[in-house]
Design a protein that fits this description.
seven-stranded mixed β-sheet, 29% strand, 11 helices, alpha+beta, elongated, five-stranded antiparallel β-sheet, Peptidoglycan synthesis regulatory factor (PBP3), Domain 2, Beta-lactamase
Length: 386
């Protein structure tokens, strides 16, 4: 591969915009064993600590449960007025007779889907989740199969797998915190009206009012979700999201030892998301990045262009030593089809993991005429080639 050399895109970025705030003197490090920060607009990962490791998600996996419910509502197969019957078995194993989070559903009662949704989202009610699953799919196992199919359709990590709708510990119930954050991003973008339920502070059913357990609501400016989780295997975890100055960030983590530690780390991660990390567009879509040499073409150079915006996230200390270069096989033989992927933009630095982005031919390059090809061949013969 031939490298065109370091590009000057860094000079084109605002130094002021790339300078970390005064209070951020060292690189951020989460106290959670697994943590991630996503930029919602671009989907890029701003921070990762073991964020692709499959973990026990606890009730955070209810986000996938509710995504299926949201899609059922949107498809018109159910409405909030639809009623499902509470199986007495659900009352015994996941409801008031259990030690799990529940919304006090009565056995054999008919309950509106709208109430079940709010119970599942706001108070993390396991009895509501199982009743929804059985009402929609006929059984929890059939509903779980849909959750796993949807995970594949959304492009989640192949290791992500659901075994139940509640998030209770199970050896086959695993997902990474990055996938949890990606699920939240999808829910927010695809079902904004449904997502608003995650910001409700309390829910009353059967004359019992229970609070939303998300410690960010009402304490962190701009926070509007998403979901807490806790089991013996997972520890205390949370998916959180907030909007400030028109920018949305999403965080997910697990493994804290207490509720207080979870609340503190949730605020710490979101604060870092807005103050310690910034998103920068290196090139917009359809921008020319460089030009590459063409062999035996009607033109000697072909423009290398982006197809989608090239966006990176930078944290404290990551800008220092950051470099970019274009690499391609030299020279590129004609003919070249417009839009063909023919080069890569490589961005890397001492504190920035190497990333590569495809570059495409900005125009069609036909073959040179026979005389030009013959002349080039003669030049190679006399010059001995490279």
């Amino acid at each position: 591969m031939k490298a065109l050399g370091a590009l000057s895109f860094l000079a084109g970025l605002s130094l002021a915009a790339m300078t970390p705030p005064a209070q951020a003197q060292t690189a951020f490090e989460s106290a959670a064993p697994n943590a991630v920060i996503l930029d919602a607009a671009t989907g890029i990962t701003l921070y990762c600590r073991a964020c692709d490791e499959p973990i026990a998600p606890a009730s955070m996996s209810k986000l996938m449960t509710m995504l299926i419910v949201a899609e059922e509502l949107e498809a018109g197969r159910i409405t909030e007025a639809t009623e499902f019957t509470v199986d007495p078995r659900v009352w015994r194993t996941h409801g008031a007779m259990s030690d799990q989070s529940h919304m006090f559903l009565a056995p054999n009662s008919r309950v509106r889907v709208g109430d079940l949704i709010r119970g599942a989202i706001i108070v993390s009610a396991n009895d509501a989740c199982v009743t929804l699953a059985e009402g929609i799919a006929g059984s929890e196992s059939a509903f779980v199969a849909r959750m796993n199919r949807r995970a594949r359709e959304l492009g989640l990590d192949p290791r992500t797998h659901f075994a139940n709708v509640t998030g209770l510990d199970h050896p086959e119930q695993v997902i990474s915190v990055r996938d949890l954050a990606r699920l939240a991003r999808h829910m927010i973008a695809a079902h904004p009206d449904f997502y608003r339920l995650y910001s409700q502070r309390e829910f009353t059913y059967n004359n019992r009012t229970q609070p939303n357990r998300n410690p960010l609501l009402g304490t962190f400016e701009g926070a509007d979700g998403v979901k807490t989780g806790h089991t013996a295997l997972s520890g205390y975890g949370l998916i959180g999201s907030a909007v400030r100055d028109g920018q949305r960030r999403i965080v997910a983590f697990r493994g804290m030892e207490t509720m207080a530690a979870r609340a503190a780390e949730a605020e710490r991660l979101l604060r870092a998301a807005f103050y310690d990390f910034q998103v920068h567009t290196l090139y917009p879509a359809n921008a020319e990045v460089a030009q590459a040499d063409v062999w035996l073409g009607g033109r000697r150079r072909v423009p290398l262009v982006t197809r989608a915006p090239i966006v990176i996230g930078l944290g404290v200390g990551q800008r220092e030593g950051l470099r970019a270069r274009v690499v391609y096989q030299r020279p590129i033989p004609a003919p070249i089809a417009q839009g063909a992927e023919i080069a890569r933009l490589v961005v890397e630095g001492p504190n920035f993991a190497r990333r590569e982005y495809p570059l495409y031919a900005g125009r069609r390059i036909g073959r040179a005429n026979w005389f030009a090809r013959a002349w080039a061949g003669l030049g190679d013969l006399l010059g001995g080639g490279e």
